[in-house]
């Protein structure tokens, strides 16, 4: 197990386990409640498999009314709840609580409405990311955010983590493509935010919920924006003799005012792993590979590709290959999409990190990661969304060797601290979860974190939703609401108080 601690379980709640299970069975009858240890094993972890914990009980509701009733019961009886989608989170966001209910939303798996005039699709949260595109591609539409796990990850999980993907540079993250949500609060209240209209009045609660990591409510319905497929899409494979030259090419492309549909970078270990796995035709004699895709009118795509070739050659590109068919374009992307499982073939274990940096800092951070690899005695394979600076270093280790997991975690922490040092952030799309929780102090002050927790308290006063995640130190809501008096004086004394 990893070194990050979870809150100590409440023995009083565990002692009431049979009572809690019985109450939940009355709400979700049949096979909707799982309490046998062996059957709960499949829920003990998410894709951050270094951390495992059996939940108190697993509940699989299939109606909004059941979700509301489960949350209402848990709120009234002070039982913690961990919402879960497909379990593809890489930050431990769906790690169960030993004294809490794991609420799986995967029975909510239907496409409810396809509305082409409004370019919108209404789905339940258990529908996979790729499932949305599959539902509309026959009519020439698609859903833009495309994480590498899109064949498996659920749209509800995408909401929780604000997931991106290889085309997020041009088309945005989940938050830029979600129009509306139906959510159930911890009290059991059902609320609706946004809709098919393009904007909402008042506070932007939709943006607040997208990326809230299951701390504020449970999503039961999602309305997303769909786009029409572009007239033309072509991709270029560009190889470089060094990662620094590849990184500079990325900065120069964006600096020239070109916004590709996608721009991904891989270093030599990732290139070789992906090529051995997929046979995409990647060059093996380069240190770094850039995949750049342009989409839009054919004349525009051809012109921009010629400009990118000029920029690449100015940055000493050693190989340039442009796709001439849809099959060839998809083959280029197949290797990138399969990079994570491909790396799994060359190492018993790996940690997939997720930091985001200013593009101009890319060469410095890549050089810094090499130095950190020597410091910790571990290899790293780099695969990332180069266009928006979202890094995904894959730290290779063997959990069977004593001390290697701890070394990998320390290596990962150093990479994330380097991202913050150069003006970046701890996460781009994987979320904080437990993985980055104890690093939050490197990016936020204590006052910053307290302010964020006040938002949590507004939605979940008893702090029962997804406990132990995101915040390194959790304060009681009453404590956060206190007025601080310094030297006998109230802050901002001129403000009227009621």
Give an overview of the whole structure.
The protein has 498 residues and is of the alpha+beta class. The chain folds into four domains: 11-104, Uridine Diphospho-n-acetylenolpyruvylglucosamine Reductase, domain 2 (2-Layer Sandwich); 111-228, Uridine Diphospho-n-acetylenolpyruvylglucosamine Reductase, domain 3 (2-Layer Sandwich), CATH 3.30.465; 232-341, Alpha-Beta Plaits (2-Layer Sandwich); 347-438, Alpha-Beta Plaits (2-Layer Sandwich), CATH 3.30.70.2740. It has helices at residues 11-15, 17-27, 37-40, 64-76, 129-136, 155-161, 168-171, 205-209, 243-255, 268-278, 298-314, 326-337, 339-343, 362-376, 404-421, 440-443, 446-459, 477-480, and strands at 33-34, 57-59, 80-84, 100-104, 111-115, 120-123, 141-142, 178-184, 190-194, 218-225, 227-228, 232-240, 262-267, 288-296, 319-322, 349-352, 355-356, 379-385, 390-391, 393-397. It has a seven-stranded antiparallel beta sheet with strand order 15-12-14-13-18-20-16, with helices on both faces. β5 and β6 form a beta hairpin. α9 packs antiparallel against α14 (362-376). The longest helix has 18 residues, at 404-421. The protein is globular and about 70 Å long. The N and C termini lie far apart (51 Å). The model has no long low-confidence stretch (mean pLDDT 93).
């Amino acid at each position: 197990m990893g070194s990050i601690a979870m809150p100590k379980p409440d023995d009083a709640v565990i002692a009431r386990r049979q009572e809690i299970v019985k109450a939940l069975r009355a709400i979700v009858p049949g096979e909707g409640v799982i309490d046998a240890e062996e059957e709960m094993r499949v829920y003990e972890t998410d894709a951050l498999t270094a951390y495992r914990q059996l939940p108190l009980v697993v509940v699989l509701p299939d109606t909004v009314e059941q979700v509301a009733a489960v949350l209402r019961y848990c709120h009234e009886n002070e039982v913690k709840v961990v919402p879960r989608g497909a379990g593809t989170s890489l930050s431990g966001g769906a790690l169960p609580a030993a004294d809490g209910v794991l609420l799986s939303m995967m029975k909510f798996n239907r496409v409810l409405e396809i509305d082409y005039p409004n370019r919108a699709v209404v789905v339940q949260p258990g529908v996979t990311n790729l499932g949305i595109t599959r539902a509309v591609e026959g009519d020439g539409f698609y859903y833009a955010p495309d994480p590498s796990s899109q064949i498996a990850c659920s749209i509800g999980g995408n909401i929780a983590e604000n997931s991106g993907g290889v085309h997020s540079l041009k088309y945005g993250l989940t938050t830029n493509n979600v129009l509306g949500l139906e959510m159930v609060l911890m009290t059991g209240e059902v609320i609706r935010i946004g809709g098919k209209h393009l904007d909402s009045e008042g506070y932007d609660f939709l943006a607040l919920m997208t990326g809230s990591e299951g701390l504020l409510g449970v999503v039961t319905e999602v309305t997303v924006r769909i786009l029409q497929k572009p007239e033309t899409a072509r991709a270029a494979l560009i190889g470089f003799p060094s990662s620094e030259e590849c990184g500079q090419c990325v900065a120069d492309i964006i600096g020239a005012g070109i916004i590709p549909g996608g721009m991904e970078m891989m270093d030599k270990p990732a290139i070789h792993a992906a090529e051995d796995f997929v046979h995409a035709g990647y060059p093996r004699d380069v240190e770094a590979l850039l995949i750049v895709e342009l989409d839009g009118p054919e004349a525009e795509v051809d012109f921009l590709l010629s400009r990118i070739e000029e920029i690449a050659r100015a940055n000493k590109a050693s190989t340039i290959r442009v796709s001439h068919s849809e099959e060839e374009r998809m083959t280029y992307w197949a290797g990138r999409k399969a990079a994570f499982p491909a790396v799994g073939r060359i190492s018993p274990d790996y940690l997939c990190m997720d930091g985001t940096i200013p593009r101009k800092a890319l060469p410095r951070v890549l050089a810094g990661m090499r130095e950190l690899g020597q410091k910790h005695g571990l290899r790293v394979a780099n695969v990332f969304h180069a266009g928006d600076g979202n890094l995904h270093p894959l730290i290779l280790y063997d959990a069977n060797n004593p001390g290697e997991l701890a070394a990998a975690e320390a290596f990962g922490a150093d990479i994330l601290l380097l991202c913050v040092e150069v003006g970046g952030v701890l996460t781009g799309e994987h979320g904080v979860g437990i993985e980055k929780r104890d690093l939050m102090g490197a990016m936020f002050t204590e006052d910053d974190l307290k302010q964020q927790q006040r938002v949590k308290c507004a939605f979940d006063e008893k702090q029962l939703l997804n406990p132990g995640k995101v915040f390194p130190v959790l304060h009681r809501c009453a404590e956060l609401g206190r007025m601080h008096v310094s030297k006998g004086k109230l802050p901002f004394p001129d403000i009227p108080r009621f």
